[in-house]
Amino acid sequence: MALPQKVVDQLSRSPIRTQGALGQLLMLGTILLAVSLAVYLGLAFGYRPYLESEISRLDNKIESFTKSVPPEDQAKLVRFYSQIVNLKSLLGKHVVFSPIFAWIEANTQINTSFGGIAINQKNNQISIDAVSKTLEDVSEQLLVFEKIPEVKEVKISSVSQQENKFWRFNLGLVVDFKSIVTPAEVPPSE
Amino acid sequence: MVLVLFMVVAAFIVFFQFTQPEYQDIQVVRGEEFARRDFVEKQQSAITQVKKLIAEYEDSVDFQTLVSASFPGDQDIYSAIAQMGGLVALDSLTLQTFSITETKAQELQISSSDPNSPKNTNLIRPYGTITFRLQIVGAYEDVKSFLSHIETNIRLFDIGSVDIRPTSKSNLNLFNASVEVATYYQGSNK
Question: Based on the structure, what is the number of domains in chain A?
Fold first, then answer.
């Protein structure tokens, strides 16, 4: 029995289809290989040399930075900067000393006079040699300093009566030096 | 068919054996290049600022002179003595003796909690201190005036301690004053 015409046609066409598919696979394989090779060659011989030349160019630029500002100018600038920072710090610690005299004078009892004064700003100590008319004046002078909030400690020593009946004594004060010499800030009036 | 297989296998070999390792190497090189580029950009910006500062520094001669007068770049003991001598004469005092002590340059103490503290502490040079001990004779008001002039002098002077005693001729307004004054200068390189 002869095969139907349809089957005969199909059998006669199948080798042509197989050849076409093989050709397409071959094309795909070639493309895959070509792309892989192209990517590799591009990276190895194109991009890498480019990056390396960039690195070398940037290295040269970094090298040239040291020459762009002369060392003398750098030293001058650093020195000036340092001077300003140090000066700012020292001015912050600078204590105006002389108002302490006005403070002592303002707190002197009326019948008391001061002979010698030793003021040490660094350890906040004031030592006063004083002479008062009476013993009441001595105690009043002591009280004056004790009442002042800036005075942290008052010590009296070497109390003796002189030939003229006046009383000589020594006062040792420990004070908050900065609050005495720094005028209190007045709040702005509205 | 064998050729197709060969092509595909070759493409995979090229990709996994060459392209992928090459790509990983290039990532490292790219990282280096990026780091250098970033560094160059930052440096360029810093150099532009430094050049601008140098230009401003060179234009501000008056300010430099003022800063150097308050806080000189070296000991400049001669000018400190001359200034003190001038003030002693101005206040009609007599300078009896004086001594000088120099303290080695010290680092600026910077509090990390202070928001106004300088950021580039490595640029700040240490400062030196010169301490003068003066013995002067004069009227009480003149001694006070001298102390007031000293503490507001152009060169920074800090009064550390003062000891005022009446002279042996106690009937006159004449006092012996012992004054300790410190002044500062920019130390040399670290």
Answer: 2
Domain membership of residue A90 (yes or no) is no
* Residue B156 in contact with partner chain A when CB distance is under 8 A: yes
Measure the CA dihedral A171/A177/A182/A187, to 10°: -90
Distance between CA A121 and CA B26 in Å, rounded?
68
In chain A (190 residues long), the average pLDDT of successive 10-residue segments reads 69 63 84 91 93 93 82 83 90 87 90 91 92 92 91 91 90 90 62
Same domain, A173 and A125: yes
Same-domain check for residues A106 and A58: no
**Mutual angle of helices B20-59 and B61-70, in 10-degree steps:** 80
Q: pLDDT digits over B96-117, tens only?
A: 999 999 877 766 665 555 555 5
For B86, other C-beta atoms within 10 Å of its C-beta total 12
Contact B124 A69 (CB under 8 A): no
d(CA A47, CA A39): 10
**Which pLDDT score is estimated for A29?**
85
Query: Other C-beta atoms within 10 Å of A39: how many?
Result: 17
Whether B85 and chain A come into contact, CB under 8 Å, resolves to no
Distance CA(A27)–CA(A24), nearest Å, equals: 5
- The parent domain of residue A57 ranges over 14-63
pTM score, two decimals?
A: 0.70
Contact A29 B11 (CB under 8 A): yes
> Tell me, what's the pLDDT at B103?
79
ipTM passes above 0.90: no
How far does B8 lie from chain A, in Å, by closest CA?
5
User: Do residue A120 and residue A173 come from a single domain?
Assistant: yes
Measured distance between the N- and C-terminal CA atoms of chain A, rounded to whole angstroms: 125
For B58, residues 6+ apart whose C-beta sits below 8 A from its C-beta are none
Fold of B70-186: Alpha-Beta Plaits (3.30.70)
**Nearest residue in chain B measured CA to CA from A61:** B40
